[in-house]
Amino acid sequence: MFASFLIGLREGLEAALVVSVLIAFLVKSERRDRLPHVWGGVGAAVALSVAFGALLTFTATRLDYSGQELFEAITSLLAVVFVTWMIFWMRRAARALSKELRGRLSDALELGSIAVVVMAFLAVAREGLETALLFFASVQGATASAEPLIGICLGLLTAVLIGWGLYSSAVRINLTKFFTWTGVLLIFVAAGILKYGVHDFQEAGVLPGLNAQAFDISTALPADSWYGTLLSGMLNITPQPSVAEVVAWAAFLVPTLFLFLRRRVPAPASSAA
């Protein structure tokens, strides 16, 4: 549930910030007549995201065992790629995001109402599709199907409340620290998804070494214990992983954390001639 909550909170808040920027721009520009077009684009993006998640689930249930394992492995890899790109993109573009969105919306207002709908749709659809894909990949192997759904719903609701609070100036939050810490947690979640994807490839027969265990800590980390369930649900840490799973987990986690947390040194200003 916590991993799903984190996904909903992080992705939902990004979408909420985008919507709040668009609405604030229209209100300050005295173009409230265009607000229904923004909400129409947002609604269409939400509907597309839900339909995409339903399509993933429907496709997985219609495949045989090997096909289902292969499909889940591929979606896991795609989810890792998208969430990694999203984390680094948000860190780089967060400062200029508001200005960029206002510029795009200003151009869309000159083109007409349809352009405003399309602009709002594209701005939110990316977050929604990423959320659906990441959620689908993160809940593979979950023992309780209701808990991940409850978690992501709570995360999205919390994101909406925070977004509204930021828009109305009722809430103040250090977004840089927020996206940094949630980015670190999502990197751990993505590493677990990659580990599960490797396991699915092994189950499908694409990769060897399914029975080559790296270690066995089932005594210290029983699968039926509350902490074993917590670590498995959040980070996909299992007591008997294969060698390939551990190698993939570490090969992704260590360099990604290093690149994400390292301080960026600003380029020196060129001296005047």
Automatic annotation (TrEMBL):
<dbReference type="GO" id="GO:0033573">
    <property type="term" value="C:high-affinity iron permease complex"/>
</dbReference>
<feature type="transmembrane region" description="Helical">
    <location>
        <begin position="149"/>
        <end position="167"/>
    </location>
</feature>
<protein>
    <submittedName>
        <fullName>Iron transporter</fullName>
    </submittedName>
</protein>
<dbReference type="InterPro" id="IPR004923">
    <property type="entry name" value="FTR1/Fip1/EfeU"/>
</dbReference>
<feature type="transmembrane region" description="Helical">
    <location>
        <begin position="6"/>
        <end position="26"/>
    </location>
</feature>
<feature type="transmembrane region" description="Helical">
    <location>
        <begin position="38"/>
        <end position="58"/>
    </location>
</feature>
<feature type="transmembrane region" description="Helical">
    <location>
        <begin position="179"/>
        <end position="198"/>
    </location>
</feature>
<keyword id="KW-1133">Transmembrane helix</keyword>
<comment type="similarity">
    <text>Belongs to the oxidase-dependent Fe transporter (OFeT) (TC 9.A.10.1) family.</text>
</comment>
<dbReference type="Pfam" id="PF03239">
    <property type="entry name" value="FTR1"/>
</dbReference>
<feature type="transmembrane region" description="Helical">
    <location>
        <begin position="111"/>
        <end position="129"/>
    </location>
</feature>
<keyword id="KW-0812">Transmembrane</keyword>
<dbReference type="GO" id="GO:0015093">
    <property type="term" value="F:ferrous iron transmembrane transporter activity"/>
</dbReference>
<feature type="transmembrane region" description="Helical">
    <location>
        <begin position="242"/>
        <end position="261"/>
    </location>
</feature>
<keyword id="KW-0472">Membrane</keyword>
<feature type="transmembrane region" description="Helical">
    <location>
        <begin position="70"/>
        <end position="90"/>
    </location>
</feature>
